[in-house]
From TrEMBL:
Residues covered by the AMP-binding enzyme C-terminal domain: 533-610
Organism: Williamsia limnetica
Coiled coil: none
Record flagged with keyword Transcription: no
Record GO biological process: acetyl-CoA biosynthetic process
Protein known as: acetate--CoA ligase
Length: 650
């Protein structure tokens, strides 16, 4: 039997946005709503438009045209739409003075924008972009940290019909250049830099180096985030300041509507091998999906304050911005590391900004567990209504620490899973249903997902491939300018089904769990084993801060498990590796006990705190780790390689 960490109270059931939608249509439960939302996807998405009052300038003549096949659906044909109207303009009549954006930097500086101020900045920025020659269909990159200018830029670019290309703020020049060239970007908005862990990150320098190899870029807009006065002069490109772009002396741009399925955003996957893929997202499709996520999964309304610890270069950045503002709520941006100057910074942020929905990664929670619990709970965290999580599987000890110890089981953890190409989630629990530890609940509304075996047959109680049988509005329209790569990546494994590349499990109680990327899952003597199953056991040891498990070739078993662990500060380390091997044997099974256990100083992680298992495996085997441009700490790869190599020499 599952251990249920969350049981909804009458307050949640009476007031939840998702049950408001259900009751409007005579639906009594979340299970019934899930079933109806996939039995008739056109009914569901039309109901979402009506429930969230998402404005279309021209009404659509139908919800879905799938005459070109499941791979290429046309949503809301005939409809026209503008994201600025949907996310900003419609709130001005009675909410102009309501907070739209709050920004807090690592040094404690706070800036706040109302909806009226955001609307004015966006309108001026749109005029400034058109003055630079940017128009509908032109791609514009943003290489910015989590600052208000990033939000303004997103809306201004999309609002004039140009294509938004967000770039991770930690990318180096080669990674920037590859994405700018693939998208044929015409202009880039960049910050002179940002501060992370007290260190200056010179972003403008990286962009200048990248632009030596980007012939399509004609203009650069510089945000003076650090007060450096950097001008980013690039031969052949016009350089202007952010202040010039948003000059209030300019006319305010009047936003026109565009076809609902016109391209609005290119979200690049991190790409561990090969060229990163540009997922194609549309004006109405992406906006409607993320609006529904924020409203129904995270239960945010106009009085909500939404904060996700992320980067605008990952899909969670645009999801947070567009989804929050499509619901008329306030967005909190945190620029920097959430554990600086100490492990209580995140909790201080929550208390200070009265955050109602806090999004974190399991890796971040594991890092914060070493802090004094009494110090954490002494903060006023009473504003929190829901917690969000994505990016990787949880371990039970970290999940339960956050849910039970920090929040006393009074708020749900909405652990959801999807991807850049999905434009939101495949799986998510809802605040109105009981939630067991680490569970993803079930299919997100409108998402006809399943778990199947290698022959495409439904599978329960065993690990299988996560697939989706019907389209959804935010489904990528393809891989940018590469139709065949799109079809090969997502539609070739099983006829008529999107295959996402995740392994999942539906247990005997109908609870869904993501077990990891299918190419991360180990095959031990013919039995599939997800890294998370081993890692969650390793994390139970008092000396372990975090851990990773990989499969390596073995002549007898096909693969054997190797485990890597990072000690907690000040923890005893003598004999721990042997203890961990025993712990896995007891917790998972003797056949799955790691044949080798390595103590390391760090594990390579993305800036969004995902452990890069494929990089760990490459380091251990001495092979090419592939694209490390998204790594927060790429030096960890060399450190692991050194530990393994030196041990082999003994």
């Amino acid at each position: 039997m599952s251990t249920y960490v969350w049981n909804p109270t009458a307050e949640y059931i009476d007031n939840a946005n998702v049950l408001r939608l259900a009751r409007r249509h005579g639906v009594e439960s979340i299970d019934e709503l899930r079933a109806r939302s996939t039995a008739d996807i056109e009914w569901y998405w039309d109901a979402v438009v009506a429930d969230l009052e998402v404005p279309f300038a021209t009404p659509y003549r139908g919800v879905l045209d799938s005459s070109n096949g499941l791979e290429f659906p046309d949503w809301f044909p005939g409809g026209t739409f503008n994201v600025v109207d949907a996310c900003i303009t419609r709130w001005l009549a009675d909410g102009a003075d309501q907070t739209a954006v709050v920004h807090e930097s690592e040094d404690g500086t706070v800036r706040t924008f109302t909806y009226a101020e955001l609307a004015e900045q966006v309108a001026h920025a749109a005029t400034g972009l058109t003055a630079l020659g940017i128009g509908p269909g032109d791609a514009v990159g943003i290489y910015l940290p989590m600052i208000p200018e990033a939000v303004v830029a997103c809306y201004a670019i999309a609002g004039i019909g140009a294509i938004l290309v967000p770039l991770f703020s930690g990318f180096a020049a080669p990674a920037i250049a590859s994405r700018l060239n693939d998208a044929e970007v015409k202009a880039v908005i960049v910050a002179d830099g940002t501060v992370r862990r007290g260190r200056t990150v010179p972003m403008a320098n990286e962009l200048v180096a990248a632009l030596e190899h980007c012939p399509t870029v004609e203009a650069v807009v510089m945000v003076d985030n650090l007060g450096s006065g950097h001008t980013a002069e690039v031969p052949g490109a016009k350089s202007v300041s952010w202040q010039t772009l948003v000059d209030p002396a300019q006319e305010k741009w009047v936003f026109a509507a565009f076809p609902a399925m016109q391209t609005m955003l290119l979200g690049y996957t991190s790409g561990t091998t090969g060229k990163p893929k540009g997922a194609v997202h549309t004006h109405a499709g992406f906006t409607l999906k993320v609006a529904s996520e924020v409203a129904y999964s995270f239960d945010v309304g106009r009085d909500g304050v939404f904060c996700w610890i992320t980067d605008m270069g990952w899909i969670m950045g645009p999801l947070a911005a567009f989804g929050t503002h499509a619901n008329g709520a306030a967005l909190v941006l945190y620029e920097g590391s959430p554990d600086v100057p100490d492990d209580y910074r995140l909790w201080d942020l929550v208390a200070r900004q009265r955050i109602t929905m806090l999004g974190v990664s399991p890796t971040l929670v594991r890092a914060l567990k070493s802090a004094d619990l009494a110090e954490i709970t002494s903060r006023d965290l009473s504003s929190v209504h829901t917690l969000g999580s994505t990016g990787e599987p949880w371990d039970p000890s970290s999940y339960d620490w956050l849910a039970r110890d920090v929040f006393d089981s009074r708020v749900p953890i909405i652990n959801f899973s999807g991807g850049t190409e999905v434009g939101g989630s495949f799986l998510a629990p809802y605040p109105v249903e009981p939630i067991p530890s680490c569970s993803l609940g079930g299919p997100s509304l409108g998402m006809d997902v399943d778990v199947v075996d290698d022959a495409g047959r439904p599978l329960r109680g065993e690990i299988g491939e996560l697939v989706c049988r019907q389209p959804w509005p935010a489904m990528t329209r393809g891989v940018w300018k590469d139709k065949e790569r799109y079809l090969e990546a997502y539609w070739s494994a099983f006829p008529g089904m999107w295959c996402h590349g995740d392994y999942a499990l539906v247990d005997s109680e109908g609870q869904w769990f993501i077990m990891g990327r299918s190419d991360d899952v180990m095959n031990i003597a013919g039995k599939r084993l997800a890294p998370a199953e081993v890692e969650s056991v390793l994390a139970m040891h008092a000396s372990v801060a975090e851990a990773a498990a990989i499969g390596v070739p073995d002549p007898k078993k096909g693969e054997t498990v190797w485990a890597f662990w990072v000690p907690r500060a000040g923890a005893e380390t003598t004999g721990v590796s042997d203890e961990l091997r025993t712990l896995v044997a007891k917790g998972v099974g003797k056949p799955f006990a790691p044949s080798k256990v390595w103590q390391v100083t760090a594990l390579p992680k993305t800036r969004s705190a995902k452990i890069m298992r494929r990089a760990v495996k490459a380091a251990a085997l001495g092979t090419d780790p592939g694209d490390l441009s998204s790594a927060e700490n790429p030096d960890a790869v060399d450190a692991i390689r050194g530990v393994v190599h030196n041990a082999d020499q003994v």
